[in-house]
Amino acid sequence: MLQNPENCAVVRTVGYIGGKWKPIILIRLLNGGKVRFGKLAVQMPDISRKILSQQLKELEEDGLILRYSYMEKPPRVEYELSESGKTLIPVLKAMYDWGIQMEDPATRGTWDPIVK
Amino acid sequence: MLQNPENCAVVRTVGYIGGKWKPIILIRLLNGGKVRFGKLAVQMPDISRKILSQQLKELEEDGLILRYSYMEKPPRVEYELSESGKTLIPVLKAMYDWGIQMEDPATRGTWDPIVK
DNA sequence: CTCATTAGTTACTTATATGTTACCAGTTAA
DNA sequence: TTAACTGGTAACATATAAGTAACTAATGAG
Fold first, then answer.
1. What is the CATH number of the domain that holds A52?
2. Whole-number Å distance between alpha carbons of A84 and A75
3. S-S: B1 plus which of A8, B15, B73, B113, CB 3.0-4.6 Å?
4. Would residue A11 count as lying in a domain?
5. Which Pfam families match (chains A, B) (predicted)?
């Protein structure tokens, strides 16, 4: 995880949810319910499956998501926000709102998975 | 800055304030007023002056802080949160509170520049 | 004259994050 | 019997972030 020499709580939070992909993964799981690995991969075309797998494993190790693996062939694995992960919702909301404010109107995207 | 292929607002926010040092710098400037470069350097013993300088420049280029350079020798430079930077306060607060929740009690630090 | 002062920069090195490609296993359908 | 399905992993390559050491310039103090 991100180094944190001064043991700053904000840096710690960045370590848990920062980076290029973790916010997107978390937002995909925000609406609740289990989501399959393959569905996440389809929803995020630009992330490689290796990185997706790696990020999911880190989120699971950090206790933010739960992983359900069914012993079937072909395999089926589902992910879901944990109780601890749900406490992130107001944090993600604050970061999301601020990021919207800072968005260049000319480059404005339509990507808005936080719908409610 | 951090790549953001899906143009996600949360990732954008991480790009502005993420990393190992930016949260700490911003928190140091939260209480308002101008702070000299050297004072920041003393308050953050583990950051090299080169990196501190670089991070301050990025924050300034992003419009989050203001830089006042007085033409004196030896030089004097002061930094201050901009109006745009002040809009970060609720975001940092949310991230700070969450980070405190996640802190391992055994490793609990005493570092708490958000005093009020 | 010489040294300390301040806020940097330049060149170079190391660490961390992210990415590409190829490969695997057990079952079902063609 | 051959291919497709799924959720990975291993080996390798690159990109970004962070760190180190040496150096600069104008003035004042000793």
1. 1.10.10.10
2. 27
3. B15
4. no
5. HxlR
